[in-house]
UniProtKB/TrEMBL annotation:
Pfam families cross-referenced by the UniProt entry: TAXi_C (PF14541), TAXi_N (PF14543)
Protein name per Swiss-Prot or TrEMBL: Peptidase A1 domain-containing protein
Family as reported in the entry's similarity comment: Belongs to the peptidase A1 family.
Organism per entry: Linum tenue
CDD domains referenced in this protein's UniProt entry, alphabetically: pepsin_A_like_plant (cd05476)
Domain of life per record: Eukaryota
PROSITE patterns in the cross-refs: PEPTIDASE_A1 (PS51767)
Keywords for this protein: Aspartyl protease, Glycoprotein, Hydrolase, Protease
Family annotation (InterPro entries): Aspartic_peptidase_A1, Pepsin-like_plant, PEPTIDASE_A1, Peptidase_aspartic_dom_sf, TAXi_C, TAXi_N
GO molecular function: aspartic-type endopeptidase activity
A GO BP entry: proteolysis
Active site location: 64, 282
Length: 448
């Protein structure tokens, strides 16, 4: 919405400080430093640094809980951005530069497991196994599957993680379109942490390397940052709600919305999970979205609470308010209420976005929710400044308000986090995928 402020400190400037701080915060778990912010005035996305290949090369990947496949730009991609407004150097993946890279051919059994349609139309044994993805905003990426060594950023001594690297399957993009082809939000690719079998979490868990739980705390203030952990961050007053089992994303059952303690009049069926209705968490979405039946009643409730302070205005499709004082003193708290009694309290800065700071009447703050048919998406705007725990063993998501620059406690005390056999989502295709992937990478190592 707002161009990047040229005075923002370069991301790389914080790297050494954050690594030192995170080394003190965590003990025994794999953790990643987080960069970026939900504030589009600065970034508009959260990303982390990932090392792949032999020798290891570092890539900046957007953290995305809304999709499964991790993918990176390729050097031969004609539509991939060559520069980024974030001030980071883009680093395309080159298979030839890694001694442990293994391109996946369409005749490979791995291709049959992850892309059966591709494998069934394989004209030549040397043709690569392709992928194609389209995101909800219409942006697309396509390319080929690749396997290579994934290096953990840091593993403190005494870690329960048995090794500091592992082979993973990912995509190498040879074409990007839409916002993915623009320099506005350009990074090296996507770090897929969805629920599916191809996500990094699933690949590492089913091979007994990391727990089937991950957590993040995304800092909202200033230039943002935060932490992303393969494990469980623990904190007092954490509340949990069950995942909706029949839906592919981290879907929750939202029951109601309250503004300033008053329930917004919305038919509960608008939130009831079904084949065409869902409420889910997505770190790859900057703003947030409300199902259309709830949007107008929600906005009306906010307007009623702040009507005495001024009249809202429309700015490029956003409902905005000229504010000359603190939004915390003017705007009401909002509560999202989920099954099981778990409520997510939103402060004004977690449902409003700063549109303009140079108006005659003061700063222009706008409703950060957009209207969407059938879906409610909780993006970075809502989930910032909270610890979130995605516990796929117990099939639940938990959260609590938190200062993401503070120290945190972590836990992997339960053996079930590391025991794939206890998972209820076992499938022969999944097991085949990871057996084949392990064999393929070991073979590649032995042939070097």
């Amino acid at each position: 919405m707002v161009p990047l402020n040229s005075s923002v400190v370069a991301v790389e400037h914080h790297k050494a400080r954050d690594r030192a701080r995170h080394a003190r915060l965590f003990s025994g778990l794999v953790n990643f430093s987080v960069y970026g912010s939900a504030d589009s005035f600065y970034y508009g996305i959260y990303f982390t640094k990932v090392k792949l290949g032999t020798p290891a090369r570092e890539f900046n990947l957007q953290i995305d809980t809304g999709s499964d496949l991790t993918w990176l730009n390729s050097k031969s991609c004609p539509t991939c951005p060559r520069s980024s407004r974030f001030g980071i150097e883009l680093n395309p993946y080159e298979a030839a530069a890694s001694s442990t890279s293994k391109p996946i051919s369409c005749s490979d059994k791995i291709c049959a497991a992850v892309a059966p349609r591709n494998a069934s139309r394989c004209p030549r044994n040397d043709q690569l196994c392709g992928y194609a993805l389209e995101y909800m905003d219409g942006a697309t990426t396509s390319g080929n599957y690749m396997a290579d060594t994934f290096h953990f950023e840091s593993i403190p001594s005494g870690s329960t993680t048995p090794n500091a690297s592992a082979a993973i399957l990912f995509g190498v993009s040879t074409y990007r379109s839409g916002v993915l082809a623009e320099t506005t939000l350009a990074v090296d690719g996507i770090f897929g942490f969805g629920k599916g079998n191809l996500s990094v979490l699933s690949q590492l868990y089913y091979r007994g390397i990391t727990p089937r739980v991950f957590s993040h705390c995304l800092k909202g203030e200033g230039t943002g940052g935060g932490v992303f952990v393969l494990g469980e961050i623990t904190a007092p007053r954490m509340v949990y709600t069950p995942l909706v089992p029949s839906q592919p994303h981290y879907s929750l059952h939202l029951e109601s919305i309250a503004v300033d303690g008053q329930t917004v009049p919305v038919d509960p069926r608008a939130f009831t999970p079904s084949a065409d209705r869902a409420t889910f968490i997505d770190t790859g979405t900057t703003l947030s979205y409300l199902v259309e039946e709830a949007y107008d009643p929600f906005v009306h409730s906010v307007n009623a609470a702040v009507s005495k302070f001024g009249t809202p205005r429309m700015k490029n499709g956003y409902l905005c308010y000229p504010i000359s004082s603190s939004i915390c003193s003017l705007f009401p708290p909002v509560s999202l209420n989920f099954v099981g009694g778990a409520s997510m309290l939103l402060k004004p800065e977690q449902y409003l976005v700063l549109y303009d700071v140079m108006t005659q009447d003061g700063s222009m703050w706008c409703i950060g929710f957009r209207k969407l048919q059938g879906l409610t998406i909780l993006g970075d705007l809502v989930i910032k400044d909270k610890i979130f725990v995605y516990d796929l063993v117990r099939q639940r998501v938990g959260w609590v308000d938190y200062d993401c620059s503070s120290s945190m406690n972590t836990s992997v005390s339960s053996e079930e986090f590391f025991n794939p056999k206890q998972s209820s989502s076992s499938s022969s295709s999944r097991d085949l995928l990871f057996q084949l992937l392990t064999i393929a990478i070991v073979t590649a190592f032995l042939s070097i």
